[in-house]
Amino acid sequence: MGRAVTVAVCALNQWALDFEGNLERISRSIDIARSRGARYRLGPELEICGYGCSDHYYESDTLLHSFQVLAKLLESPAAQDIICDVGMPVLHRNVRYNCRVIFLNKKILLIRPKISLANTGNYRELRWFTPWNKARHVEEYFLPRIIQEVTGQETVPFGDAVLATKDTCLGAEICEELWAPNSPHIEMGLDGVEIFTNSSGSHHVLRKAHTRVDLVNSATAKNGGIYILANQKGCDGDRLYYDGCAMISMNGETVAQGSQFSLDDVEVLVATLDLEDVRSYRAEISSRNLAASKVNPYPRVKVDFALSCSDDVAVPTCVPIQWRHHSPEEEISLGPACWLWDYLRRSKQAGFLLPLSGGIDSSATACIVYSMCHQVCLAVKNGNADVLADARKIVNDETYVPEDPRELCKRVFTTCYMASENSSQETCNRAKLLAEQIGSYHINLNIDAAVKAIMGIFSVVTGRTPRFSVYGGSSRENLALQNVQARVRMVLAYLFAQLTLWTRGMPGGLLVLGSANVDESLRGYLTKYDCSSADINPIGGISKTDLKNFIQYCIENFQLTALRRRVGKRCIMSAAPTAELEPLLDGQVAQTDEADMGMTYAELSVYGKLRKIAKAGPYSMFCKLINMWKEICTPREVASKVKHFFRMYSINRHKMTTLTPSYHAENYSPDDNRFDLRPFLYNTTWSWQFRCIDTQVTAL
């Protein structure tokens, strides 16, 4: 009867400008799709060049190499008798568009440009592309000679059209168009399109996956139809982790779910679905049918090809499934771990070095590396040849098979406790216990000699010797003495990262990991060019509250009992966060982060969300908090807290310009590179804004 259609959707770990690798992964996905009976294959957004090319999109080379890859795909025997839908940039009449190129049997059927461009948060598509603003309009696109020689076509349709096969009708959306208030699938569905496709370049944010799933399912719940979504996965060269979650939905229900976090470079979902289920679902929605009778029709590109077989009565079709979402703790365990693995193998380094202080943040970072090792061993056990080959290159052993996460940790992960006279024995022992349990190669060293040498130079030059405040020194002296210790640790971290493997008779160098969380970065509670200055930071977009919950998750799921084992008076889980840069009091730590900052980490999370997500300046933040905190603070206390936050935030904003590249996980991240664009020289008195607050306090 020709009613059961088989479609394939992909999640590919593409890498910006890695045209050879990207071609191999696309080709492999087409092979898998065909071998499993699919007649249509959908890939991620801009998969040919990789989504994260940024200003390389301006280069003609990027366009040229994309067409060269397209030519290879058109010629490939694997790409015959299956409609292939790939993503790449295309220059049409001297305007650059983000496009889908849809082809079948060496013929391009349609080039469909993106209509709604993503231009918020981490996305800057309007910088490189122009949206296609000609609704339901198609023009002739003159193919470059390299493609003409393969297809025999001189021109192909370019614009907002849909494909009409022998048995159904398909319409394309591209990423942001699903999130837009006037998504194309609405009117395409009213015009008889039965299969909607979406090629995405959507990155991970904690607690975001359900939003994407809900949008896909709701797209067909009201209007009926089949919706298939492809997405990029992995680290393609910057702070983002694209989190897969390829999916297929029909009539408001999920029928196939891809993994959100995985070390598989190529993942293909295939589903067989009954078109009559779509038609019968739509038949009884009278409001939809009334609207459909008035819709402005889309141009249709006729395709002499069917997604179904003529005799398919006995073909089994897919049934709805329940989507399984990860908890935030699972997301922290898996997302940054996969990102670290991609960064490690693609940077061709031999491992990581982490200054391990025995506190929550550095311990959480260590646990993420351990989770990475766990994922690698699991992937190898499941037969992932790519992961095995990468692991062997990293450890420089062609016969190596990673089976035990602790043993792999020993090879690729070095931890270092950098003690000073202000460090407690408790934190030293906590760091050592955790290192032993995860299996890292652990180093204990003391930085006092280096600190004294530096301060000695200062004293010789100036004739003055700074003192800590507990010994009668000023706040300036106290801060300078803390900063020297922190910066010495950064210098030593890089020295040991370069030469530790050399001392062990092993080749290569190590990437230095930072461990500043999103809250202290927002407040600026870090020394510029200290241990927060690293190569990459897997927790830089994660809040202290979420990290504490993640530590509990590691205790329960990885059996890392060192995280809760009491050393002295406290364990890693319960110890008060401290920088340990001021002198001890009777051998005990007297300095704490929250006392130094003048605010709690819980308060910082609230400030961060209001500042970034709610777009609140000082006055608006005050107005919101007097209601949120009315049970615990007076308006005058709220005013004092808000002023203190904005004063410290603005004084320290300059530190964000040198912030270590961090895994993006929170929508209130202060990352200055691309996500949170602000001045770094403020008028820190905020005189007008604070006066408005004072006026309101007086009135209240």
TrEMBL record:
Metabolic or biological pathway: Cofactor biosynthesis; NAD(+) biosynthesis; NAD(+) from deamido-NAD(+) (L-Gln route): step 1/1
Top-level enzyme category: ligase
Similarity comment text for this entry: In the C-terminal section; belongs to the NAD synthetase family.
GO cellular component term, pick one: cytosol
Lineage: superkingdom: Eukaryota
Protein name: Glutamine-dependent NAD(+) synthetase
Keyword ATP-binding tagged: yes
Pfam family, one: CN_hydrolase
Domain CN hydrolase: 5-275
Record's keyword terms, sorted: ATP-binding, Ligase, NAD, Nucleotide-binding
One BP term from GO: 'de novo' NAD+ biosynthetic process from L-tryptophan
Gene Ontology MF terms: ATP binding; glutaminase activity; NAD+ synthase (glutamine-hydrolyzing) activity
Organism of this sequence: Eurystomus gularis
Assembly: Homohexamer.
HAMAP family per record: NadE_glutamine_dep
The UniProt record lists the keyword NAD: yes
Coiled-coil boundaries: none
EC number: 6.3.5.1
